[in-house]
């Protein structure tokens, strides 16, 4: 997916980094520019729709000066949302793909995509924490504000991370992607504590809303490759998006997953429905018009100030997908992402901590991020 | 000091506030800055534009507050815009100059003065006007006219603006939207939720007659507001039993 990049800006301080060297091998010289300052750094405000779109096509290779490792944003809303102990390792920001519902549209203010070139520093930070808490089952994901693998052809960070996590078998590394870029690390398998996870959606929704991503078939094929080489895989059916034929389309998605994979091959399946910050609406309308299922959606103010579907519709969608999986096999491990205890109870008739298959995932752990 | 008749009026800026006729008006380099409605023989103090800072200081002392439509008119007034730097001007009146705000101001000056004044009176903010940005001029004029005709509270006007803008973008035609109540617009914008609400709200649940219920939507949840009075523990038990029965029946509905 690196072919969508129009320009690679290299921070003067990162010229000798592995990523910068690789960028010079992969891209023609006229696409690369060494700079002293961040491009468009004079923009210190919310981005316009055009600036946001431009930021997807221009990348800045630069060292990161903050803390790489953090708790998932869901954990800061523990009072209203059930939290699954997810930690995030941010090795860059922005995404070359273009999903209409992407929350980065109200989250990122940087006018350029970034790849942090000092991954070794991130690994030092991670090691300090793992040396103390390596015996606890922490889950660390790299796909919070950047797709974990879409730019991995350029960075090859997956390889460094898989090798690092092999020293801490209790910890789990989770890649989250809508790409099918896996070939670059398959030779490092088997690695059971590396979970390669895919955001999946109904084929119709993928085509209509997830622009520039790998097709559903390509993602499922990539997942199969990972399983074959001894990696764990997970699926995030998130966001489930309401549309007229949602039942038929999501039934088809579940059918494709359950036909191609068995519960013992899939670490976990998370479900979420469409949600976004109110201030994102205008940006989405500007970028995708009102033909999109997302901008047309019937959304209401909800917990955590986000807009969500009507609660009873959410329950219906969760129950529908959940029951489809459970009808196939009771062994599928399914949980809801960023949902309230009320929704858990009305969907599953229990809280995650009361469900044996999810107990470990939602077990309270010490705060290390 | 000169008389008002010696000055250009620059009426396209004219703010809502009326200048008192007991004090002289003020001008900025031959442009009347206030007292637009006073008699032509009213005295005017003259100020020359010497720097952006002094002109802004003068404006702020004449108008301690200006609304967004008033600022939009000032920014787009060829008579005045030469005297102010847009970023400092907006900052002085607690607005942050960003591309979206600039776009909103450009849109505002194309709407009718009546609409602008209504927005000023109701203190409608820039963020609340963003849905209109995606419309063409004819659609904006339609929305403005509908809001003026409806003559509602600020909250209702903002809701109407948002609903109408969305519906127009969703290809509903003007004539199917004109004159509708807010609830009717919401029904068009949220057809699935409206029909689900209708089904739940009209469902026959076995409430006791002493229990007053009202169907309500609160954000992403729809349900019943329940009100009752119990004078004795026995009465309370009876009501509680009924509520349990209602809950079971509600739960069994599809």
- Total of DSSP H or I helical runs spanning 4+ residues of chain A: 12
Overall pLDDT of chain A: 90
Which outline of chain B best applies?
elongated
**C-alpha Rg of chain A (nearest Å):** 20 Å
The helix fraction of chain A, in percent, is: 25-40%
| Poorly predicted ranges of chain B | none
Describe the strand arrangement of the main beta sheet of chain B, using strand numbers: 1-4-2-3
Order of helices and strands of chain B: EEEEHHHHHHHHHHHEEH
Count of strand segments of chain B: 6
**Extended strand count of chain A:** 18
For the termini of chain A, the CA-CA separation is 31 Å
How big a fraction of the residues of chain A is strand? 15-25%
Can you list the strand order of the major beta sheet of chain A? 4-5-9-10-11-13-14-18
Summarize the structure.
The complex is a heterodimer of chains A (369) and B (254). With 369 residues, chain A is α/β, with parallel strands linked by helices.
Verbal overview:
The complex is a heterodimer of chains A (369) and B (254). Helix content of chain A is 32%, strand content 21%. Chain A is an alpha/beta fold. Chain A has an eight-stranded mixed sheet with strand order 4-5-9-10-11-13-14-18. The mean pLDDT of chain A is 90. With 254 residues, chain B is of the alpha+beta class. Helices cover 50% and strands 11% of the residues of chain B. In chain B, a hairpin with a 2-residue loop joins strand 2 and strand 3. In chain B, helix 7 packs antiparallel against helix 8, helix 8 runs parallel beside helix 10 and helix 10 crosses helix 11. The mean pLDDT of chain B is 93. Chains A and B meet through helix 10, strand 16 and helix 11 of A and helix 6 and helix 11 of B.
């Amino acid at each position: 997916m690196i072919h969508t990049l129009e320009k690679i800006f290299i921070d003067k301080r990162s010229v000798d980094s592995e990523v910068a060297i690789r960028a010079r091998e992969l891209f023609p010289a006229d696409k690369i520019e060494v700079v002293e300052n961040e491009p468009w750094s004079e923009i210190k405000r919310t981005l316009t729709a055009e600036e946001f779109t431009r930021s997807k096509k221009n990348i800045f290779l630069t060292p990161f000066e903050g803390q790489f490792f953090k708790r998932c944003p869901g954990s800061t809303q523990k009072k209203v949302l059930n939290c699954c102990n997810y930690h995030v390792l941010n090795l860059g920001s922005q995404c070359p793909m273009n999903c209409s519902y992407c929350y980065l549209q109200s989250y990122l203010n940087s006018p350029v995509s970034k790849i942090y070139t000092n991954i070794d520093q991130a690994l030092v930070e991670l090691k300090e924490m793992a040396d103390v808490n390596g015996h606890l089952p922490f889950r660390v994901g790299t796909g919070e504000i950047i797709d974990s693998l879409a730019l991995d052809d350029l960075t090859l960070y997956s390889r460094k991370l898989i090798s690092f996590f092999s020293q801490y078998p209790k910890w789990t590394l989770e890649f989250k992607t809508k790409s099918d870029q896996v070939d670059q690390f398959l030779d490092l398998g088997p690695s059971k504590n590396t979970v390669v996870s895919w955001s999946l959606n109904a084929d119709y929704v993928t085509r209509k809303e997830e622009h520039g991503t790998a097709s559903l078939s390509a993602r499922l094929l990539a997942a199969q490759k990972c399983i074959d080489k001894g990696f764990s895989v997970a699926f995030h059916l998130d966001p489930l998006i309401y549309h007229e034929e949602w039942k038929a389309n999501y039934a088809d998605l579940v059918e494709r997953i359950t036909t191609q994979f068995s519960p013992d091959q899939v670490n976990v399946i998370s479900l979420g429905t469409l949600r976004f910050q109110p201030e994102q609406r205008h940006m989405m309308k500007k970028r995708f018009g009102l033909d999109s299922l997302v901008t047309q959606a019937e959304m209401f103010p909800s917990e955590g100030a986000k807009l969500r579907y009507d609660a009873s519709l959410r329950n219906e969608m969760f129950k529908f997908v959940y029951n489809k999986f459970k009808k196939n096999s009771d062994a599928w491990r399914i949980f809801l992402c960023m949902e309230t205890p009320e929704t858990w109870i009305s969907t599953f008739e229990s809280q995650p901590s009361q469900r044996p298959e999810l107990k470990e995932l939602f077990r309270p752990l010490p705060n290390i991020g | 000091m000169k008389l008002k008749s010696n000055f250009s009026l620059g009426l396209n800026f004219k703010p809502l506030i009326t200048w008192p006729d007991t004090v002289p008006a003020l001008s900025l380099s031959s442009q009347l800055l206030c007292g637009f409605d006073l008699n032509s023989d009213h005295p005017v103090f003259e100020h020359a534009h010497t720097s952006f800072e002094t002109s802004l200081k003068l404006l702020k002392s004449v108008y301690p507050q200006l609304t967004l439509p008033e600022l939009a008119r000032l920014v787009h007034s060829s008579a005045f815009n030469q005297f102010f730097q847009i970023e400092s001007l907006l900052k002085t009146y607690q607005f942050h100059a960003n591309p979206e705000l600039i776009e909103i101001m450009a849109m505002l000056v194309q709407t009718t003065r009546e609409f602008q004044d209504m927005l000023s009176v109701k203190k409608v903010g820039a963020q609340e006007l963003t849905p209109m940005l995606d419309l063409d001029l004819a659609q904006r004029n339609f929305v403005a006219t509908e809001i003026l005709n409806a003559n509602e509270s600020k909250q209702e006007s903002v809701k109407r603006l948002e609903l109408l803008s969305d519906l127009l973008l969703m290809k509903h035609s003007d004539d199917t939207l004109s004159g509708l109540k807010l609830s009717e617009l919401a029904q068009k914008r949220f057809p699935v939720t409206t029909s689900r609400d209708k089904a739940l709200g009209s469902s026959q649940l076995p409430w006791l007659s002493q229990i007053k219920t009202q169907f309500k939507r609160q954000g992403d949840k729809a349900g019943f507001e329940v009100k009752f009075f119990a004078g004795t523990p026995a009465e309370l038990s009876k009501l509680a039993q009924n509520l349990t029965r209602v809950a079971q029946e509600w739960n069994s509905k599809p």
